[in-house]
């Protein structure tokens, strides 16, 4: 893909760096844009799949990374460019739907994990939920697309989420081991690839069990 074509793409398709660079006037939760240097340093060595530039898998990965960044760091959903904010909804394993305002108020960890033997979303705020995983995985919590099974407007894809358990998790001592989870998501998108609806399917109990010392990776 040449530079001219890349410039014609919407920011959310170009990726996180483009969205952050073009985010004049954005209300950041921490007062300034996030720093993704850990992803840039670690992901090239630890990822398991490399996708051709401009391929559907590459685009899906970039759009989802923008979505995660915006939900985690932009305070005003009206400034999110990765989704059609007033229509967006998401859920996990066939559970209740959550909209963009739910994500702003409760946070993506609480929405996407919910109630679990090793984590209770009702006990956590947006801020405390992020601190829990920042402490447990201080070296970064990375995400990659493994395979894409269907094209727009209903994109189905398999993914991997991973990090190194080098900090405490809810009273459990770190093991220094890599912890990871795998899942499948189905995303309905608009013509410009903004997200309208995303359903996730994965075993969150198995992942958190690794942090709680009850299950191996």
Supply the key terms.
alpha+beta; globular; 35% helix; two-stranded antiparallel ribbon; 8 strands; 9 helices; Nuclear Transport Factor 2, Chain: A; 6-stranded mixed beta sheet; 217 residues; single chain
Would you give an account of this structure?
By secondary structure, this protein is of the alpha+beta class. It has a single domain (12-211), classed as Nuclear Transport Factor 2, Chain: A (Roll), CATH 3.10.450.50. It has nine helices and eight strands. The protein has helices at 3-8, 11-14, 16-21, 37-46, 56-73, 100-106, 108-113, 126-136, 204-211; strands spanning 89-92, 98-99, 115-116, 119-120, 141-150, 154-164, 178-189, 195-202. It has a six-stranded mixed beta sheet. The protein has a two-stranded antiparallel ribbon with strand order 3-4. The protein is globular and about 50 Å long. The termini are far apart. The model has no long low-confidence stretch (mean pLDDT 93).
Task: Give me the secondary-structure topology.
Elements: H1 3-8, H2 11-14, H3 16-21, H4 37-46, H5 56-73, E1 89-92, E2 98-99, H6 100-106, H7 108-113, E3 115-116, E4 119-120, H8 126-136, E5 141-150, E6 154-164, E7 178-189, E8 195-202, H9 204-211
Parallel strand pairs: 1-8
Antiparallel strand pairs: 1-2, 3-4, 5-6, 6-7, 7-8
């Amino acid at each position: 893909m040449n530079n001219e074509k890349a410039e014609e793409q919407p920011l959310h398709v170009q990726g996180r760096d483009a969205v952050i660079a073009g985010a004049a006037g954005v209300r950041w939760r921490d007062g300034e844009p996030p720093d993704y240097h850990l992803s840039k340093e670690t992901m090239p060595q630890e990822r398991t799949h490399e996708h051709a530039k401009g391929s559907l898998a590459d685009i899906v990965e970039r759009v989802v990374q923008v979505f995660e960044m915006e939900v985690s760091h932009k305070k005003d959903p009206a400034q999110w460019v990765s989704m059609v904010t007033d229509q967006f909804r998401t859920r996990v394993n066939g559970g209740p739907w959550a909209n963009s305002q739910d994500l702003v108020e409760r946070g993506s960890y609480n929405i996407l994990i919910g109630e679990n033997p090793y984590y209770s979303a009702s006990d956590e705020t947006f801020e405390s939920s992020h601190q829990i995983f920042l402490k447990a995985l201080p070296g970064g919590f990375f995400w990659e697309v493994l395979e894409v099974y269907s094209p727009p407007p209903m994109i189905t894809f398999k993914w991997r989420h991973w990090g190194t358990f080098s900090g405490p998790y809810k009273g459990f001592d770190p093991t220094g081991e890599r912890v990871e989870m795998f899942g499948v998501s189905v995303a309905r998108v608009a013509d410009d690839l903004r997200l309208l609806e995303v359903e996730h399917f994965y075993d969150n109990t198995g992942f958190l069990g690794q942090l709680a010392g009850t299950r191996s990776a």
